[in-house]
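Milestone 3.1: sequence recovery, worked example.
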């Protein structure tokens, strides 16, 4: 496939459309481990980040088509568990808290509309309407603080809800400026996801402009099959990795040893755990 510096194919995955009763297909063995810790079609794209994941301040994942936002968020949580990032801030929107299994002690901000009934229990859950940008900003700032610093890692898809209901571009831009400037100033890392099909292209373009690195996922339907692709744009280093189709991966991608060796490159090494206690508000 021809490529250019801004649209480099790094990962392609073919899969067959099946009926609901046949959805228990086994995961391809080249990416399966004994503990199923990385059994995900979208996970391999994260292996191609040019720098360790916590070296970035703003990571924006843009998805288009039938990708599965929850799977990508779970990929990121797998990384956090692998490298003992025990305290993080989930900023959720369409994805519900029950859909994920965050580390114990994580804080959760859920940007959603609710009537207050049948809400999940938990001392670290804060619910804010997605159109209340000032309240969102204040809640994110409060939840990111710990006794001695800041939660190191923020993950979520709350921007889908925020972008969907925002009708005042200057207010949205000011909110994003404050959010991303605060993350950079506090030396945190944010992995935020947005669904391209839901929004005006100008809004997703704003997110890409703020990002250090953009991971784009898309799915294509051809002859009854789906093709999953991903590509990376690293703004900081102008670095563009290439990964052949997973139908014909290099032999190094087929081994557990390669994945184990690669993991230190996509997150904080296990010798540097982050075990800080979380204050309860």
């Amino acid at each position: 496939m021809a490529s250019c510096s801004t649209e480099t194919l790094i990962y392609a995955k073919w899969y067959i459309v099946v009926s609901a009763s046949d959805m228990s297909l086994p995961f391809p063995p080249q990416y399966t481990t004994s503990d199923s810790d990385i059994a995900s079609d979208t996970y391999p794209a994260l292996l191609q980040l040019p720098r360790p994941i916590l070296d970035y301040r703003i990571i924006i994942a843009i998805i288009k088509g039938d990708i599965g936002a929850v799977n990508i968020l779970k990929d990121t949580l797998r990384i956090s568990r692998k490298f003992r990032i025990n305290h993080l801030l989930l900023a959720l929107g369409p994805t519900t808290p029950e859909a994920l299994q965050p580390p114990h002690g994580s804080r959760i901000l859920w940007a959603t509309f609710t009537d207050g009934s049948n809400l999940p229990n938990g001392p670290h859950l804060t619910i804010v309407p997605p159109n209340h940008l000032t309240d969102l900003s204040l809640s994110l700032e409060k939840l990111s603080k710990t006794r001695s610093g800041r939660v190191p890692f923020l993950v979520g898809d709350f921007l889908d809800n925020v972008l969907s209901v925002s009708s005042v571009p200057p207010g949205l831009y000011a909110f994003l400026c404050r959010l991303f400037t605060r993350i950079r100033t506090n030396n945190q890392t944010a992995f935020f996801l947005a669904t391209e099909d839901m929004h005006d292209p100008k809004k997703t373009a704003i997110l890409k402009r703020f990002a250090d690195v953009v991971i784009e996922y898309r799915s294509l339907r051809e002859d009854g099959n789906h093709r999953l692709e991903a590509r990376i744009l690293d703004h900081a280093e102008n670095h563009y990795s290439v990964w052949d189709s997973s139908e014909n991966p290099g032999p190094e991608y087929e081994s557990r040893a390669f994945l184990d060796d690669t993991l230190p490159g996509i997150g904080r090494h296990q010798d540097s755990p982050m075990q800080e206690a979380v204050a309860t508000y």
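Residues 169-185 form the longest helix (17 residues). Residues 69 and 201 are 18 Å apart (CA to CA).
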